[in-house]
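Please predict the structure of the following assembly.
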Amino acid sequence: MSGGGDSVGGYGGLYHGHDDPADQLITALDHDGGGFFLQDTVSPCAGGGSTPYASIADYLKGFLDPAGLAAHFGSDDAPPPCRLGGGADDGVVVKQEMVVQLSGGSRRDDDVDGQLAGAALVAPANSSVLSSSSCEAGAGADDDEEEPPRRRCGKKGRIEGEEEQEEEEGEADDDAADRNCKIRSNKENGNNKKTRGENKAREPRVAFMTKSEVDHLEDGYRWRKYGQKAVKNSTYPRSYYRCTAALCGVKKRVERSQQDPSTVITTYEGQHTHPSPVGLFRGGALMLSAVAGGFRRPDLLTIDDYYAGTPPSSFLPLLTPGGIGGGGGGLLHPSI
DNA sequence: CGAGTTTGACCCGCGC
DNA sequence: GCGCGGGTCAAACTCG
């Protein structure tokens, strides 16, 4: 593990280098396809990059900032800022590397995730879809924010938006209601044809690859697990979490890389509509906890910091200026 | 007792 | 049309 990204998966940290399958992955996020283009982007720490974005920092900022998005997308229907949480850290991570991957949240983001998760980081085949709606989804996400992000059917009480009229019908037919709700839920979630292909791409997503011994990294927000599924071609299950905050529909999926079990792949979807419960976050900051040793570290590393080129000195950027085939770099705490 | 987790079932889209 | 895989639900269960 001290190899820092050179272990099994060979990746970790910012993807960089054309030889790395991961590079293809990033390529798959081609902006042309409506997704994001991070190819060849290098952390400022590593000194440079040559991409549509000056740096991932730029990219992320664009992702987080409507203005930036407008710039990137060349239109004013830029999605709203996407805030992804993070902050507190109580994890038991010995080393952390991360890969930031953003996508527009199209249906096929799943493919990306799959690629990340599964053995194959190479999957350009699906890339086209992968990106379909990019952040304009974000624009849609705006609406999502206004509306109850997630519905809860059944006993727990239903959070409803558009279906209120139906709800009026009464609780007598709870079962039926639940069932309908389920169906609706799926549809709302973009599982119906329409949304799947087009509107589904509502929630922007960001995937992180983190070297961690714990699956669920503390990121400053509170999450409730709502499901777990076995992943095909992977011995590790994928867990589904939802932000517990009311009206916050942010979801996250956590799974271990099949290739490198020490790597946890966390995919955030959506925007938090509330501040971090732990209050460790800066507004708009995209943060990933710098977990270590099961205690809170003062030297939390934020993705903002990192990509802004101002990582805490205690973190070592693993990127090599020229890029390395086996994967870019990442963040490695010296204490490891 | 409330909040969170587990887990089997269900639904849907997609590929064949 | 069918089967598969992913995503979600919700009852039951666990934990603090």
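The mean pLDDT of chain A is 46. The longest helix of chain A spans residues 174-191.
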